[in-house]
């Protein structure tokens, strides 16, 4: 067992978890409402700003408990930010609010400009 905490803390400022969960059920799941496209939109936005992987990584994940028929759920850690109903076209506005227009706002100042998170995608 290796403790890799220090290495990852040096590299990472934030990690975006994007739900692409697929389920065969009557309940909504992110795979059916554009999860994969939202995931790719997030990666592209960060790559265009040279911020993908370091300092902001993106992880495809299973259900985040925010299932909706209106779009994908994402979480941004360690900021403890949670969004649902994200469409690919929402990604630029959302990431700009979180990380700044150049994707380089990764320090402590993010919280004031990013709003309360709950309604950011609705605005
Ligand atoms: S299936 Fe994506 S949050 Fe539940």
In words, what does this structure look like?
The chain has 123 residues and is of the alpha+beta class. It has one domain: Glutaredoxin, CATH 3.40.30. 28% of the residues lie in helices and 20% in strands. The protein has 4 helices and 4 strands; from the N terminus they run H-E-H-E-E-E-H-H. The protein has helices at residues 5-11, 35-48, 91-99, 110-113; strands at 14-19, 56-61, 72-77, 81-86. It has a 4-stranded mixed β-sheet with strand order 2-1-3-4, with helices on one face. Strand 1 (14-19), helix 2 (35-48) and strand 2 form a beta-alpha-beta unit. The protein is globular and about 45 Å long. It starts with a helix and ends in a 10-residue tail after the last helix. Mean pLDDT is 90; it is low at 116-123. FE2/S2 (inorganic) cluster binds next to loops.
Describe the SSE topology.
Elements: H1 5-11, E1 14-19, H2 35-48, E2 56-61, E3 72-77, E4 81-86, H3 91-99, H4 110-113
Parallel strand pairs: 1-2
Antiparallel strand pairs: 1-3, 3-4
Bound molecules: FE2/S2 (inorganic) cluster.
